[in-house]
Amino acid sequence: MNAMRVHLFGRFRVESDQGELAGLEACKEQTLLGYLLLHQERPHSREVLASLLWGNYTTAQSRKYLRQAIWHINSQLQEQRNGSGATLIVAEQEWVQLNHDLDLWVDALAFEETCAWVRGTPSHEMSDEGVKALQTAAQIYVGDFLEGCYEDWCILERERLQNMYLGLLGKLLQSCEARHEYEAGLAYGHAILRYDRAHERTHRQLMRLYYMAGNRTDALRQFQRCATALREELDVEPSRLTIELHEQIRADRLDELSPAPDEAKSAGPTTLPEILAHLKRLQSLMDGIQGELRRDIDMVQAALHSAE
Fold it and tell me: N or C: the chain end with fewer CB closer than 10 Å?
């Protein structure tokens, strides 16, 4: 069978030599495929999968919906291939798994493999090959994992992969500073702030990059953006490290300007403001779940009323 490319970041899509596989717009089918792709090393119980994706229904109903989803995914692939070729999902009486005979490329798996390959390597020790691999991984991450789907497992994966992405951007940002590639570093820093505008460490890194690029004015403005974001998002003031860096830039002391010790760490939350921002992002994800539940409840209630 020809190679297939599955995109789980941003807009879900499956592509092959015949083009994009149509007919997989249903969120449940996308999450089913996403789950099997991320956990393709073993078969999965039908009962567990049905409960995972249709837990609000009876066992009989949830198994029926799972059976229908598997049939529809496989039939769409067969239709694209004019009824020939292997199925995407192998379904036995009680077990379901991905067809291991298929030649599949999955963006989320390629992304994770790259992150694992460079894990533990300090940014200033990254080889050219490592930097290029990280740049490719950053390009793969075109949006959050299975956007618009709100199953519990999906939200946890989305948060995990997003944190990996922010850590990757942080590593690239630090590498750009070490290599004096200031414009590229600024782009990575601003990408982090689009996810977390109150990430104070990233604001400090941007202040340094602007200054080292010869743009003292924007370096000072970045401090103001940092202070505003911290105040509006977390109701706190900039930390001592950020204030000291601001004073160095104001005094135009380039010879004393060097990365603060904490900048060599990962981009994960370490300070209380960063932890608070992380928790607020989780709260936002939970709000999405509640919205999905409200819509499901309204649909069921409307169906009950129409049946009366």
Answer: C
